Amino acid sequence: MNRWLLLFQWIATAYVGAVSLCLSILIGRHLGPAAFGEYGVAVALGAVLGVVLDGGFKNLLLRERTLATDAMAGSVPRLHSLAIGHALMATIVAVVLALVLLPGSRRLALATVVCFCGVVLSQFVSAALRGEGRFAADAFWQIGARTLSAATIAFAIVAGASDPAVILAAWGSGLALAILVLPHGEARRPSAEWHPCIYRTAAFLIWVDLATVVYFRADMPLLKILGAAPIEIGQYAAAYRFVDALTLLSTPASYFVFRTLRLEFRDRVRFRARLVRALAVAAVAGGFASATLHGFARPLVQLAFGSSYGEAAPFLAVLAWSVIFIVPNLVLTQAAIALNHERAYAAIATVVAIVNVALNVGLIPIYGAAGAAGATVATEAALFLLFGIGVYRWCKQPVVAAHDRSTIP
């Protein structure tokens, strides 16, 4: 794999991560802890909605454009347009449901739908480019889309917006504008064709994404549901932004790992060798990042968000230890997808999601946001254990050369 392409990806991700973190800091300082907590809850719930809007197409675009399975080969040229069509139809349904079911929170609900429609559509572009190995083009796309969406958010804040709904709407609008005006060489028109084989394959990917979002994002909605103070939720949201930033910085390497492993699908000896090497690097990077976040939690929080977020430091000190598992987990989950084990992936993610919710429900009433932080660490550790065992076993299985495992009973 060309190291220059990896460098392009890291530059783009570092830029996107830096801009995103700066925007979070700007939004947090502008809104204050209580309103920032409301914003954080909306983003967490929007991530769940994003799974429905995505419909599994992001992972399908990445996987099938890298190496098409027999069952999907004929649909690959139209896959991006089908993805856009699915996202737009799901968005219309979400808008109607928000208007009917959430009369008291319509502004925030509609803004969240608009925001995550833009997020999903932009992710389709990146997945398609990465699937074809066009990592440099994807890097330029990421930089351009993040710049334009950041500009719309900054404009809203400078204009005096103090409502999380306005900020979310500005974010989604900026991404939609980027898709329309920035060059990326990908589909812009939707298609409403119905392909049952695509949705059969995507069903497991949707399940996986939903379970992943639940165990990764359930903490803030559960803090709100279980009666945590809005200010405490805002403090926790500020601490979690650092974990999000490190996860984002690790993502480019995981995409390269996926492509490398997928192309070695039929040679399990080389597959295992590359996987072990990637896991070793991930373990070292995750351990270093965890120790750094834990040791410098208080100065990092106060430098970034200001003295009003001082209570976030203890939460970050606990959350830091989740990173030591998050980085290797990115590698293990990409290996599972590369091996076509969506069903097992979905089962593991579901078990981990249930564990996460149970831990949050048990710990939050006693320890508040500190309990949510502890639940996050325990969840990532459980995910690492289960995926480690699973991938070890799958690598020893014989190759199914002509079929997609997701279609095999």
Description:
The chain is 80% helix and 0% strand. With 409 residues, the chain is mainly α. It has one domain. α1 crosses α3 and α11 packs across α12. The radius of gyration is 20 Å and the shape is globular. It starts with a helix and ends in a 15-residue tail after the last helix.
Please summarize what this structure is.
This protein has 409 residues and is mostly helical. The chain has helices at residues 3-54, 57-66, 79-101, 106-131, 135-158, 164-181, 196-217, 219-225, 230-263, 268-295, 297-305, 312-319, 323-338, 342-367, 369-394.
Summarize the SSE layout with pairings.
Blueprint: H1 3-54, H2 57-66, H3 79-101, H4 106-131, H5 135-158, H6 164-181, H7 196-217, H8 219-225, H9 230-263, H10 268-295, H11 297-305, H12 312-319, H13 323-338, H14 342-367, H15 369-394
Overall tally of structural domains: 1
Largest sheet: none
**Class from secondary-structure proportions:** mainly alpha
Given as residue ranges, the uncertain stretches (5+ residues, pLDDT < 50) are: 401-409
* Number of helices, where a helix is a run of at least 4 consecutive DSSP H or I residues: 15
Mean pLDDT level: 86
Characterize the overall form. Answer: globular
Total number of strands: 0
**Radius of gyration, in angstroms, nearest whole number:** 20 Å
Q: Give me the strand/helix succession.
A: HHHHHHHHHHHHHHH
Helix content: over 70%
Approximately what portion of the residues adopt beta-strand conformation?
A: under 5%
